[in-house]
Recover the amino acids of this structure.
């Protein structure tokens, strides 16, 4: 998962990259919206950008704080505040008219996704372990496909998850391969899957069992 570039960098006299200010806030916002739309996370969210003009050329540190709250007149708000070494401001606000429990959980998952995308300055969050749908498959599942499988192929439940959650769930020492396992998923009609209600999988390399 490629995160969003926040800073502008140039090489110094020693050939090392040095920050020389932030990118346009509107460009950062547009990148965020595009990534969230590609993940089908904000179809029911009214998302607006604070167009306040700021001097970004001398900013060298920035943190985006993403949090949710219930509105005084209903609905759920997602606020993204930007704190830098030069100024603080509200970067963007999202609102949904729904205010039920599941909508609140979903909004917090969007907030978590935003926090990762905005606070890693272009880093690529990679999945070490690889998961395949069948032993014959040579193409590992993407994070979006992993969400779908984890939700027992229920599209609505899969939408309640984020790529970040799946990356955290699938990374790490799930077997004896030190985070480089290659797993085959048991099918949904497997007795073990039905009984345990977990997407069990077996590593091709070491034979260990784990689950999504």
């Amino acid at each position: 998962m490629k995160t969003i570039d926040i800073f502008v960098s140039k090489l110094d006299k020693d050939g090392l990259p040095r920050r020389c200010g932030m990118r346009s806030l509107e460009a950062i916002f547009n990148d965020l919206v595009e990534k969230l739309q590609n993940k089908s996370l904000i179809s029911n969210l009214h998302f607006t950008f604070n167009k306040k003009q700021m001097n970004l050329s001398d900013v060298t540190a920035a943190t985006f704080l993403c949090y949710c709250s219930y509105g005084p007149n209903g609905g759920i708000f997602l606020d993204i505040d930007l704190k830098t070494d030069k100024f603080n401001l509200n970067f963007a606000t999202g609102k949904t008219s729904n205010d039920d429990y599941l909508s609140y959980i979903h909004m917090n998952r969007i907030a978590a996704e935003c926090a990762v995308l905005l606070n890693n300055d272009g880093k690529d969050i990679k999945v070490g372990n690889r998961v395949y749908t069948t032993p014959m498959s040579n193409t590992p599942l993407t994070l979006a496909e992993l969400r779908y499988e984890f939700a027992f192929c229920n599209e609505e439940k899969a939408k309640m998850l984020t790529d970040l959650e799946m990356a955290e769930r699938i990374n790490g020492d799930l077997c004896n391969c030190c985070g480089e396992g290659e797993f085959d998923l048991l099918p949904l009609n497997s007795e073990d899957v039905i009984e345990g209600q977990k997407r069990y999988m077996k590593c091709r390399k070491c034979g260990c069992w784990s689950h999504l």
Q: What stands out?
A: The first strand starts at residue 7 and ends at 11. The radius of gyration is 20 Å. The CA atoms of residues 158 and 211 lie 16 Å apart.
